Amino acid sequence: MTQPSTAAAPAAPAPAVTAPAGPVRANARPRRTIRPRTVVIASVAWLLAALFLIPYLEMVVTALRPADELRDATYLPSHFEWSNLVNVWTDSTLGGNLRVTLLVAGGSTLLVLLVALPAAYYTARIKYRGRKIFLLLVLVTQMFQPTSLLVGLYREFYQFDMLNSVWTLIICNAAFNLAFAIWILTAYISSIPVELEEAAQIDGLGRLGALRRVTIPLAMPGIVTALIFTFISAWNEFVMGLRLTTVPESQPLTVGINNFIGNYTVQWNYLFAGSVVAILPVIVLFAVIERQVVSGLTAGSVK
Predict the structure, then answer these.
(1) Fewer CB near the last or first residue (10 Å), C or N of the chain?
(2) Rounded to two decimals, what is the model's pTM?
(3) What is the pLDDT of residues 156-167, one digit of tens each?
(4) 6 φ, ψ to 5°?
């Protein structure tokens, strides 16, 4: 008796795998959807930026206008007078004024660094009696306006025969910016752990060696912040330079630019050309060290 043979059923063919039409990236991220709120905030930010930049753009355009088109009600001149940027140096004392401003800003910044750094380090590390009173007095000096002290300062420097001197402007600008520098540096040095200095002293360094090799490199953002604000304040100072200097060659750049405004006429092209020269170094300097300035201003805010 024969049994029926069972034949194996043929296997079903495997489904074909189709490759994707386009290239597949390994770390492909989902496309972010832009929210209407983000669009509104970005639009408002660009609008505010344009409002702040339009006056500077107008200043540059006016600096390049020909003299006979200064009163024309047009946005752009018929041609740009590039010689204005050259004649402003030859037809005035602006070159000497720029040299005075560089000396005053650089000297004031250096003097503030030499005085504020030791004072801030001692205040941050030594818990002496009257420490809070000292910081309060430093803050109170920041409330005095240079204009309110102008008469006394003028009489004092007049008696010492120091009018029309670069050193006079250096001392005044350093004195009015010293309080801010001490506060910034005290906050930043206080945020640096004192154990780092103690470890350096155990390794053989003295207090000054630990300050130079450990504290100062770590406090560099705060130092840069204090220095850049001192430099900008001394660069833009006007009232002291106007009253404590009477000779055109010894006046700072801000006062030299003001001399283009006469009793009956205003040299608008030279006035704005000098203004462009005055703001360019500050813009470039702040753009280069903007990150360190932000880091210094936020020192001590996060524990």
Answers:
(1) N
(2) 0.75
(3) 899 988 888 999
(4) -100, 115
